[in-house]
Amino acid sequence: MKDYPVKKNQRIIVSIIDLTHEGMGVAKVDGYPLFIENSLPGEEVEVLVVKVGNKFGFAKVEKWLTESPDRQPIEHIDLLRTGIAPLSHLSYEKQLEFKQEQVQNVMKKIAKMPEVPVYETLGMDEPSGYRNKAQIPVRRVAGELTTGFYRKNSHQIIPIEDFYIQDPDIDKAIVTIRNILRRFDVRAYDEESHKGMLRHIIVRRGHYTHEIMVILVTRKEKFFKGELIAETINKEIPEVVSVIQNINEEKTNVILGKENRVLFGKDHMVDQLLGHTFRISPQSFYQVNTPQAEVLYQTAIDFADLKKSDVVIDAYSGIGTIGISLADKVKDVYGVEVTPEAIIDAQINAEKNHVENAHYQTGKAEVVMKKWHERGIKPTVIIVDPPRKGLAESFIQSAAEMSPEKVVYISCNPATLARDVKLFQELGYKTEKVQPVDLFPQSYHVETVTLLTKIENN
Ligand code: SAH
C-alpha cells in the first residue's frame, strides 16, 4: 500500500487554509489535501481522518482550537451533513464575498479577462426561508414513512422537518402530507428492491399568491385511494390548489417521470413576478427564489437598456418570465425552450398578461436559433438563461452571426459562463460587466448576469 502522510482514524491538528467552492475547508498535511466539513480558513482544528484516497482525503472536526471571526452559529448540523445549506456556518456577508471572488477567479483563469468588473453580489436581507419549492425524498425509516434529506454522497435519509432555507409554510405542508400518507398506510419507496409506492413529495408555493401545488411521485400508476389522499391534503392545507400524481416507474435518480395525473384541483399553479402573472406546470422550470429572481431579471432588463425598436430573443425561456416582463418595452420577443409544457405555459402566460408581441417555439435553442437566422430574424438583443452546462458552441456561432448589439447572459454556473464569453469574444463580443445575484443563500450556487456588447467593425 502507498504511504500517505495521514492514516484513517488518525487524530491530528491542522490549519484550514482554503475553502472549496462546495464549502469544504481545506488543510494540507505535507502537501496532501484534506477536505473538512464545517471548517473555515484561518481556523485551527483537531480532526479525525475518515477517508484516505489517492490524491486527497476527508476528515471530520472533533474540536475547534480557534474559530474564524466569519463563523456563524448553524441552525442544525444536518444542514451541512445533507448539503442542504453547505455554507450556513459562514456569515452571510462573507458568503456574498465568496461568491463574488469565485466569479472573479473564473473571469481571470478561464475567460482570461481579469479587467472585466465583477460587482458585489446582490444578497437578501433575510437569507433563509426563501425556497418556493421543495423536492423531498420519501423512504421507510424505523418502520415508518419518513421525509428528510439524503446524507451527502449517499442515499441514506436523515429525517428532517425544518429545512431552514425553504418557505416555512412548505416545511409545514410536508409534515402534514407525510402524516396523511402514514394514516393512509402508503408504502414508502425502497430503492434497493425497487418496491414500495411513494418516491418523492414535491411542494411549490407561490411567493405572492400563496397557491400550493403538491406533486406525489409514485412508482406505479395504480395509486390506491390517490384521489381521497389528495382531497384530504387540500382539506388540511387549504392553500393547496393542485395535487398531481407523477408516475416514475424507472430505477433512476431522476425525480420526475414523464406522466402526470391530476388528483385534485388544477393542473398548474399561479404566481407573480415583476407584477406579471405566471402559470407554472409540474414539469416547468421556475426560479426557486422569487424576490431574488426579480432582482436577477431586473438586472438583465437594465443591462439590456431596451428601446421600442428592439427585437429580443429570450433563449431558454422556460414559462416566459423574462420575455413577458420586458415585452412592453420592445417591438418583438422570440422565445425558445426545450420543454413542451413550459412553452404551453409561456404562450398562455403571454395571453394572460396581454402580451401580443411574444412568439414561442419549442425546441433546442441551438437548433431553433439557426432556423430563426435562416428565416432572417434580426434580434438586437439576445438574452440567454441556459442550465449549468452553458451554451452550445453552435448556439454562440448562430447568435454572433445574427449580429445583435447586445447579449445578456444569465448564468447559474460561472465556469461555463467564463468559457462561453471567451468564445463570444473571439466572435466580436466584448464582456462589459458581471453582476452576481444571490439566488441561493447558504448554498454554494452562484448566479450572475453578464452584459456583452458588439465590438464595432474596425
Ligand atoms: N428563463 C427561464 C428558465 C431558465 S432555466 C426562467 O428564468 O424561469 C433553463 C431552461 O432551459 C429550462 O426551462 C430548461 O428546460 C431549458 N433548456 C435546457 N436545455 C435547453 C436547450 N438545449 N434548448 C432550449 N431550452 C433548454
TrEMBL record:
Membrane spanning stretches: none
Pfam family, one: TRAM
Entry-linked InterPro entries: MeTrfase_TrmA_AS, MeTrfase_TrmA_CS, NA-bd_OB-fold, SAM-dependent_MTases_sf, TRAM_dom, U5_MeTrfase_fam
SUPFAM superfamilies: Nucleic acid-binding proteins, S-adenosyl-L-methionine-dependent methyltransferases
Entry's Gene Ontology BP terms: rRNA base methylation
Superkingdom to which the source organism belongs: Bacteria
Record carries keyword Transferase: yes
CDD domains: AdoMet_MTases
Keywords: Methyltransferase, S-adenosyl-L-methionine, Transferase
Binding-site list for S-adenosyl-L-methionine: Q287, Y316, E337, D385
Domain TRAM: 5-63
Active site: C412
One MF annotation (Gene Ontology) recorded for this entry: rRNA (uridine-C5-)-methyltransferase activity
Protein family membership: Belongs to the class I-like SAM-binding methyltransferase superfamily. RNA M5U methyltransferase family.
Stated name of the protein: 23S rRNA (Uracil-5-)-methyltransferase RumA
Provenance organism: Enterococcus phoeniculicola ATCC BAA-412
